Amino acid sequence: MTAEVSMIHPLGPTTVEDWLAEEQPSDGSRLELILGYLYMTPAPTGSHQFAAGELFVALREAVKAAGRSDLHVLPGVAVKISTAFRTGVIPDVAVVSVDVDRTSFEPEDLVLAVEVWSPGNKREERDTKMAGYAAARVPYLWIVELPKNKPAKFCGYRLGGTAYRQEVCVSAGETVTPPAPVQIIIDTSELR
Prior knowledge:
The protein is an alpha+beta fold and 192 residues long. 24% of the residues lie in helices and 32% in strands.
């Protein structure tokens, strides 16, 4: 599969180890690695941070309520999605199933990834990240979009085979029970 991907999209020169050795920007920007190329995204906006913060709190409370001391909710941590495909990302919120005393996490440590897409996220970046999470076998993925002057769009996915199956997708401020490692209810109107 590496040769096939390399022919379609040549891998860049940067390895996951190189990416982890890079210093993250001090201005809140995020440096991620997609197929061997470093991508700098601007610091998240206030609305982006607000939505991610609300989801972080909801997940943390749901994990506590479920009595799951084996799960930990973290904001913005480095995840080594694929060494072979030179991809490392920083989801906005992550649920991991290992001790949190580390600087980065392996793909098998990640149980749920939450991405809040900003208008600046290109389609290729979004598709590559979703495909990367699926290839890394991350069981659950939530995607939040914040269209200007509209309610948040929230989609929840569960891994099925080699790709994600969308289980919920709402865009009018509804309350949903998304796929997750614990029972949780999200009022999407509170993400704005």
